[in-house]
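thought: fold this chain, then report.
action: predict
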Amino acid sequence: MERLMRAFMRASNHQRPQVSRNGRDSLVSFAQRLVRTPSLSTQEGEVALAVQEELARLGVGGAWVDRVGNVVVRIGNEAGPTLLFNAHMDTVAVTDSGAWEHDPLGGVVKNGVLYGLGATDMKGAVAAMVYAAGLLQPYADALRGNAVFAFVVQEEPCEGMAMRVLVEEEGVRPAWVVLGEPTDLQVSRGHRGRVMLKVTTFGRSSHGSQPEQGDNAVYSAARLIFGVEMMAGTLGNDPVLGPGTVALTQISSRSASLNAVPDQCTFYLDRRLTLGETPSGALMQVEALIARENIQATAEITRYCGQSYTGYACEVEEAFPRLGAGRGSPARRPVPAQRGARARPPAAHHALGFLDRRRVHGGRRQHPHGGLWSRRPEPRPHHARTGAGQGPVARC
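observation:
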């Protein structure tokens, strides 16, 4: 990154390119357009087209859509190292639009804040990176390396899948990666891992008037869920990545009717992994809990299945390793304000992320995937998450 930035500064005579007032207004308008364009996971086609059109309007040529639907553009001479900027185009679904202060697809700007679904996570970053590419394009020949901008798909249900395709199947090999995820404009140098666990309990059905004749699978699940809640306080911790966590995110049961005892209950656990924790270790913790409670149940790591808007079918185990900066290194560093200052990621992990989540002003009931583009920092309000449907994707 430092080599790229030094070359860039020499090429620009030590003057950083600035977004003009008209350019800023255009950037905000483009961000509004993105928010107003629905892009559920696997349905990002319209936003992908908008990104390509805006890149072309800004004079950035050569953008292509890869097999999974990522929009990719390379700026540079194709020699030397590659710095990759990553932003995802998809969003979760709106489950209760009445819980929003503003239309989640309205793209309303009020008091310098853009409101809408995905404005922070992360269409604001998409717009910013598109315009960054436009600013960098005139200096392409002077770079001693390449800047690749990747606008990726299906991050919400399966982070990393689209990047895997870009690296392993499309042959893009970045030396460094900058993620546009919201981190309050701090440089985050690590990320916890994640594994999605599916737990199913089995019982025996009976008529609701004679529950003693059956074995209620929901009651068995409740015992396990209580054990999971108790286990949450014993998980590992790390001064850089923070604690391991577990959250029950969905539960359902099966019964013949509303007056029948359920014979099966399934729930899902979103398990975040800190330093020293692994997907297999997290699964073993739940299996040990099942054995201790002597409950007839199974636990497994889920698999994500989805088909991109390009027709690319994918199936991926939902287990993602943690990315850590190492003990003794701060998880976040302030973005340097002085010209020429810089914060470098450690050699062990070249991934950075930043976006100003503090510039979310949702008011009384704004969704946490709320607004961006405050001209001054706003107090962070209390948010109540209103839902996180993922669109037409499924667990295999």
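thought: worth noting. Residues 119-136 form the longest helix (18 residues).
final: tokens above.
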